[in-house]
Design brief:
Blueprint lengths: L1 H36 L3 H29 L3 H24 L3 H64 L3
Helix pairs in contact: 2-3, 2-4, 3-4
Length: about 170
């Protein structure tokens, strides 16, 4: 019986020791994670600049959607100002970072955004000319259709009275 009591006490001591070692190990892992997870002030500045850039670009994309549907000079000015702000944010991000790969990527982004801006301007110009030509064509077709409708109505009335349908 004494031997069983000693085995149970050793078992409990072993269990308590393992739990204390486990708690200490988890605490050390948590401390290591917090050291790695804490962003550096430089990275925080980069993240803020990147967030501002993305927010401005999303806003500019929304303006593009409106601009292609409605040829409004005020929307055109807003799009230009948003793109200028986006270019400024990208330039600020390039100044903040030390990462050469990120700087190269931002240069590529600048070039692509300039090309996109030019393409959007061309698209709007084409949409304006298309809209003007379409309105003229639809007006002409409507006038012709109204004339044809009157002719067909008159011919229907004439046919109906001759055949006795009216």
């Amino acid at each position: 019986m004494l031997r069983t009591k000693i085995i149970v006490i050793i078992g409990y001591l072993l269990l308590v020791t393992l739990s204390i070692i486990g708690i200490v190990w988890i605490y050390n892992e948590w401390l290591n994670y917090m050291k790695v997870a804490t962003p550096y002030p430089q990275r925080q500045k980069e993240l803020v600049a990147l967030s501002n850039t993305l927010a401005t670009l999303y806003q500019a994309e929304g303006t593009i959607g409106l601009l292609t549907n409605y040829a409004d000079p005020q929307l055109d000015q807003e799009y230009d100002s948003l793109m200028t702000a986006s270019f400024n944010h990208i330039h600020k991000l390039k100044q903040i970072t030390n990462d050469s790969i990120l700087i190269t990527s931002l240069d590529s982004l600048n070039i692509l955004l300039l090309l996109k801006k030019d393409n959007i301007k061309e698209r709007i110009r084409l949409m304006k000319s298309f809209a003007t030509d379409t309105v003229k064509l639809m007006t002409q077709k409507t006038v012709i259709s109204q004339y044809k409708a009157k002719l067909s109505r008159n011919s229907w009335d004439a046919t109906s009275t001759e055949t006795g349908l009216l």
